[in-house]
């Protein structure tokens, strides 16, 4: 009686585990490099990829935070300092991933900054424009270039980038930031067309506002002295979708889909994760 109970339970358990591992292993054996991975969306995605069987190299300009994040994510996470606006750093990060794991399956160009540019084009300091472009656009191009030099000989790979709803709709953010994200969406389409003959897919994700250090800092500029919790609530209150808010995990789920074979025929796509915000027409009556 006890034995049959144990056998039944162990069968149930092994069936359950089988179900779990097939769900958990969507990136089993894959090697990923994620930029801007010390925090926010990059960190959440690194964690998601690892829990789905990948080994992840985290690249970020914030060395101390990056090391701490890698430690927190466990043995399948490794950190390398990298400023994406410096091509040699990006190249080194790709070579580091290669030296550790011998291949690169997923490159996620996620690092990006906001900017404190004035609302009017007449007051724009083009030095700030250049700084944002160097990180948000040049950094993405460098990531695609150096991932491609590994993925082309492999004849496979999935490249992801973080764009933004501000690249889809005008007037949501300062022009410089919006322009940088429009550029990311454009690069993705162009690179998807160039790299398809090598079996490499290129896609981007356009998140809606999520409270991360990036967006909280940006909000602080508009509402100086406001507490972090209040700013977080203000960001969540922007949500158009009743009963739901945009969280880093929503972007990590989108990245998991695009990185995995579930999206094997999806390339050149901008996956907008915005709870319908960009479809939402506000009527003034
Ligand atoms: P975050 O501040 O939590 O993370 C950004 C990370 O990028 C940080 O760890 C930072 O150190 C790193 N970084 C900054 N400059 C870098 C550089 N030159 N080289 C390497 N790393 C650098 O912010 P997040 O919200 O997770 O931002 C990630 C991406 O998401 C950005 O591209 C951002 O534009 C985009 N995004 C964010 C939101 C949002 O509301 N949070 C919305 C749409 C798009």
Automatic annotation (TrEMBL):
One GO biological process term: lipid metabolic process
Entry keyword set: Lipid metabolism, NAD, Oxidoreductase
Pfam families: adh_short_C2
SUPFAM superfamilies xref list: NAD(P)-binding Rossmann-fold domains
Example of a GO MF term: oxidoreductase activity
Gene3D superfamilies the UniProt entry points to: NAD(P)-binding Rossmann-like Domain
Taxonomic superkingdom: Eukaryota
Coiled coil: none
Alphabetized PANTHER family for the sequence: 3-OXOACYL-(ACYL-CARRIER-PROTEIN) REDUCTASE (AFU_ORTHOLOGUE AFUA_6G11210), NAD(P)-BINDING ROSSMANN-FOLD SUPERFAMILY PROTEIN
Family: Belongs to the short-chain dehydrogenases/reductases (SDR) family.
Protein name: Secoisolariciresinol dehydrogenase
Source organism (scientific name): Cucurbita moschata (Winter crookneck squash)
């Amino acid at each position: 009686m006890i034995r049959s109970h144990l056998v039944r339970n162990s069968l149930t358990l092994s069936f359950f585990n089988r179900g779990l591992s097939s769900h958990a292993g969507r990136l089993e054996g894959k090697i990923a490099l994620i930029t801007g991975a010390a925090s926010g969306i990059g960190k959440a995605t690194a964690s998601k990829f690892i829990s789905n069987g990948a080994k992840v190299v985290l690249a970020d300009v914030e060395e101390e935070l990056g090391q701490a994040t890698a430690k927190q994510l466990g043995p399948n996470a490794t950190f390398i300092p990298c400023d994406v606006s410096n091509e040699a750093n990006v190249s080194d990060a790709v070579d580091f991933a290669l030296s550790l794991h011998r291949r690169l399956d997923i490159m996620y160009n996620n690092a990006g900054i906001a900017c404190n540019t004035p609302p009017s084009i007449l007051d724009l300091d083009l030095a700030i424009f250049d700084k944002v472009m160097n990180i948000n656009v040049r950094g993405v191009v460098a990531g695609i270039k150096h991932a491609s030099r590994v993925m082309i000989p492999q004849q496979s790979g999935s490249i992801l980038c973080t764009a933004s709803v501000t690249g889809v709709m005008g007037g949501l953010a300062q022009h410089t930031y919006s322009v940088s994200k429009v550029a990311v969406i454009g690069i993705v389409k162009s690179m998807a067309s160039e790299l398809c003959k090598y079996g490499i897919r290129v896609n981007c994700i356009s998140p809606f506002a999520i409270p991360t250090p990036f967006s909280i800092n940006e909000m602080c500029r508009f509402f100086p002295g406001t507490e972090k919790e209040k700013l977080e609530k203000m960001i969540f209150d922007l949500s158009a979708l009743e009963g739901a808010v945009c969280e880093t995990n929503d972007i990590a789920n989108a990245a998991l889909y695009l990185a995995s074979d579930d999206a094997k025929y999806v390339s050149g796509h901008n996956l907008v994760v915005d709870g319908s915000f960009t479809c939402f027409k506000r009527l003034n009556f």
